[in-house]
Structures are given as structure tokens and as C-alpha cells.
Amino acid sequence: MSDDRISVRNLVKSYPTAEGTVEVLRGIDLDIMTGERLAIVGASGAGKSTLMHILGGLDRPTDGRVCYSGQNIWALPEAGIDSFRNRTIGFVFQFHQLLPEFTALENVMMPMLVGGSGRREARENAERLLREVGLGHRLGHKPGQLSGGEQQRVAIARALVMEPKVLLADEPTGNLDSTTSESVWRLLEQVHERYQLTMIIVTHSETLAGRMDRIVRMADGRILP
Ligand SMILES: Nc1ncnc2c1ncn2[C@@H]1O[C@H](COP(=O)(O)OP(=O)(O)OP(=O)(O)O)[C@@H](O)[C@H]1O
After folding, report:
1. Can you tell me the ipTM of this complex?
2. Got a GO cellular component term for this one (predicted)?
């Protein structure tokens, strides 16, 4: 089966706290088609980031399933989840989370080196991607020597270097001014078209969400009908 559809069933996430159990996700059901561009919107605290983290294999649900091509990733052993995540998912966060002491090129090479690729192959791929995102002239710059928009472009190149099938972006332009945000958003759209990725983006912007194929609205740990 080469169907990469994502299907989420009865996803629940709760945390025990001193004041009792906090229910952050209260039974999420969601199907995301291969190649779809999905926006997730909702008020602060609705559970959007939590859902993204569970979809991406970063945070374990309390209950429920997240199936990629019919395989529930949360039924895999820990090493299986790590390997699934490295092979399948690219992440872009609001705060790029680049390593400050490494250059743009090294930051983009990093996932390949960690995954066991040789330096030469990692370097070639990272250079190609940095050129694609318009940063061929900034390979040797460290994050602190780049603008916010450039840093986010490096983060997008890094998210793509392992050739993921799914790109998860949590407020990727939330920290940028409107012009820079527009150019990063356009880059995400180009990337989607070029690589035929499934793309799930959390955003507070209704305008940006409206450019996606579908909008899912969350409130209080549920998806609104
Ligand atoms: N470790 C934790 N323990 C208890 N509650 C938590 C924990 N982590 C998150 N929460 C709660 O889960 C809820 C949802 O958080 P989440 O970050 O998923 O929301 P969000 O919709 O992404 O919000 P925002 O738009 O502000 O980023 C929040 O009310 C938060 O306080």
C-alpha cells in the first residue's frame, strides 16, 4: 500500500495536574488525504499544537490512534516511532529552533548526518535545498546573522532534507511581519507543489488558512463540525 493517508481516531490527550485532570484533546477524529493542504485554526489553548505534536510522533496520546497508511504509529515501539518520524515527517515551528552555533548549511545537513548519511551527500542535498529556498548566498551564515524570514527559510530547507512525505508547520509565520510572512507562506506553497507533500499548518490567520485546501477549526480540544 502506498497510500499515505493519515487517519486519526478518538484521539485523547490529558494531563494529571494538582487541580485534577486537564483534558486537552477530547476525542479527535480526522482524515487527511495524501497531498492535501490542511489548515488548523482555533483560539489559543484549543489544542492545536498538542494535536500537531501527536500527529508528528513527538508527543504520546493518552488514547486513540494516528494511522499512516493504516499503521498506528503509537502502537510502534519507541525506536519505530523515531524512525517513522525521521523518514516521514518534516517539522517547521514558529521559532525556527535552528542550532545557533552552526551555519545554515550545517543546520540543514544535520538531520541527514544524524540519520547516518555521508557528509558529501548531506552537503549536496543541503546546498541544493538552501538554493531552492533562496539562500544560496547565505550558506556559511549562522542563525544570528540571518533575518527572521531567512531563518525560517533555513528551517524549511532543514524540514525537507530527509524528503518527508508530510510537512507539519506550527505557526510558521507567526513571528514574522506581514511582508516576510507572505514570502515564507508562498515558499511553503511552492514546496507543496514541487514535492507533492501532505501539508498541515497551524495558523491564527484566517486569510492564510483560506489559501489551503481545507480548514479544520478546533475549540476546547475538539474539532468543530
Ligand atoms: N504538560 C501540560 N500539563 C497540563 N496542561 C497542558 C500541558 N501542556 C499543554 N497543556 C494545556 O493544553 C492546552 C492546549 O495547549 P496547546 O499548546 O495544544 O494549544 P494551542 O491551541 O496550540 O494554543 P496556542 O494557539 O496558544 O499555541 C492548553 O490549555 C495548555 O495549558
Report:
1. 0.96
2. plasma membrane
